[in-house]
Structure formats: structure tokens, C-alpha cells
Amino acid sequence: MAPNVTDRLSAKFQYVNPFQVQVMLSTLGDIARLSFEKNCKDTCINPDNFDLYLEERQGGNRKGGTDTYFSIKSDRCLRDVVFGGERFHFTPPSGRLRSFPKVSKLYRSTEQIVDECMDDLLGEFGKPMAQKAQKAQKAQKAQKVVEFCKFDEMTEEIEYKMSNCHHPNWTFSICDKGGHQRTLCCHPYNEDRKAYGVYGVTQRSNCMCPLHCDDTFWRRLSSYALTDRTFKIKGDHLYVKDIVGLPSIYEYHRNLEDRFRKTFSDLVDSSYMEKSYLELEREGMVIDEIYPRCEGRDLKTHYEIAYFLAKVFHHKNTQLLIRDNNHARKLGVDTNRYKILINGSKGGAVEELAKEDFRLIVPSDNAISYMLDLVNTFLEKEPKLEF
């Protein structure tokens, strides 16, 4: 079982005036209890009949986070409850109570129980059950603007080209609804893979078949390192200290904000200059490398690759950029003049100043060691292909 963190202290600072800040200390258990009592306020649930405790997650994307669990304190819960003139009946739980909604479902009103009994009786006599009121239909989600994500219309074209593909490297090209050219591979190795809704085919750029695995190795490896970075910078302080090279995640966010303001001060609306990193992220800005990862594709030894990746993800080589051309137009940024500042339009372009700045970055020994372990882990997962 994960450690109980109910008694871990949490500090809350409340601004009073320029000369006074109040500090309030409370345990995580106290905070969870107050939240539970607040949820119970307008219900028939008596919070005193339940105990709660918090456990710390030991792995996954939310490692270090907490989960709240509820347990029944005594048999007092089994009594009927009268609330707001209505009688409610308690039903013993069949599993762990992991949220307030699950606790609230333990109590059913007399009306609900009578309806269930009547349905059972009508069913026994072969009578049609009372029709339940239809739920209001949920509002449909807004259709995505990117229409070429609808792949069903491309299925026939892909299957036709697959059946007539006699090219030595098993590849063929199609044009999606967005006008982008896509190269696909239908090598027998990909028989269990799926792309654009069709089995037996995959994107050439990520293909792992015997003919293409060497060509796509660097893209797949660097993408693996990027995915690792994406999750680690959200809450792994040790990663930020060793790899990013800053004392804390807070400092890294400030660094990205400062670089963003310096780059975009004359290009986007002034209101963006006051936004925090999290607000800029919600606006669509993305973290990108100044000196791109693709420049390391010719490296051979494990150490050279690890050393390069340790430099690529250093804070001196990362910045916030506009996501794509649609995002740039929304911000009023010229998509032809400022391609270097649009993540989806850079095309691997490298500025001379970026090369020099990258050369001067010296990664820590811990960063190199971490990336070396990451490279070795990736290689262990690589399929053993027979040529």
C-alpha cells in the first residue's frame, strides 16, 4: 500500500498588505476533511460518519500526487436519514470509496427505491416498465477545424495503392485533405499497425520495418527523449535541476517567460507580455529547441548521443514558440516573415547564433548519465529484426 500522507503539512500564504503576509499551516488531511464537509453541506450525508485518508501515488504521470479514500466510521450510517422532508436509505458499499460521488451514491431516496420495486413487479407480471424520463442530450462538441483528420474518405485510396505497391522499398504517397503529402510503408512488418484507419500500413517517418528502421532511428529516439522531457518538466524537480540546469520548475517557467517577452514583445499583442508560462501554454505556445534535435542524427556512439541530448534539453536551448501557422495568423504574426518563430514552419532551419550558443552549453555529469540510461533503455526496447 502507498504511504499515508494525511499528516503532511501544507503552507498557505495570504496577502494582507504590503507589509504583512499571513501564513496558515494545515495538514493535507485537514484540507481534505474541510473539502468533504463542504460537499456534504447541502446533502443528507453526515461527514462525522466517515473517516478519510490520503495515499501518495508511487508511479505514473501523477507520481507524488495524492488520492483520497473514504471509509465508514460506524453502523450509524445504516440508519435511515430524513433530510429536507425526504427519507433516504443507506446501501452498504461494494467496493472502495474513492470519491465524494461514490459516497453520495450510498444514499437512495424512498422515491428511487419505490420506482425500482415497481419496475421489478411489473417485470414479473410481464407488464411494460414505466418509461424513465429521457436525459437531455448533451451538446455536441465543436467540430475540429482540421478537416483532414477525417480519414475515412482516404481508406479506399490507401488500400488501392497498398494492393498495387510494387516499389522496392514498399512505400507509396498520398495527399490528405489538408493538402499535405504523406509517405506510407506497407511492408509485411507493419501488418498489425494502423494509419489513417487502415491496417497494414504506417507512416514512413516512424516506420520500424527492416528497410527503414535505420533511417527512422534518430527520429524515434529523439521523440522518445522528448516525450520523457514533456512529462518530467511538469513535476520532477530533480530532472529540472540536472537536465534543464535550473534550481526549480518555477525558475524554468520564469526563464521561458523572459525569453518569450524578449522575442515576441514587438510581434504580438502587449497583453501577452503579462501572461505566465501556464497561461501562455493554454494560449497554444509550445516549448521548442533553439538548436534542433534533428542535428544530432549522424551521431554514432551512445555517449555522443547522450551528451548531445543533455545539451538539447538544457534551458539555454529551449524557448516558447507559436504552435503552427493557424496559431500565428490568430496572433497576427506574418507566417512568411517569421517562420523561424513558428514551430510547424521552421523546417529544421538553424541560425548561426544558435549554433554558437549551443556549442557553449556544458551539460552536467548527472545530465549525461541520465541521457545515457535513457538511450540504453530505448535500445533495449528496439525490436530485433531479421534481414
Explain what this protein looks like in three dimensions.
The chain has 387 residues and is an alpha+beta fold. The chain has three domains: 9-124, no CATH class; 150-203, no CATH class; 213-381, no CATH class. Helices cover 35% and strands 17% of the residues. It contains twelve helices and 14 strands. The strands form six sheets. Strands 5-6-7 form a three-stranded antiparallel beta sheet. Strands 8-9-12 form a three-stranded antiparallel beta sheet, covered by helices on one side. Strands 1-2 form a two-stranded antiparallel ribbon. A hairpin with a 5-residue loop joins strand 8 and strand 9 (181-185). Helix 6 packs across helix 12 (365-381) and helix 9 packs across helix 12. It is extended and about 75 Å long. 17% of the residues are buried.
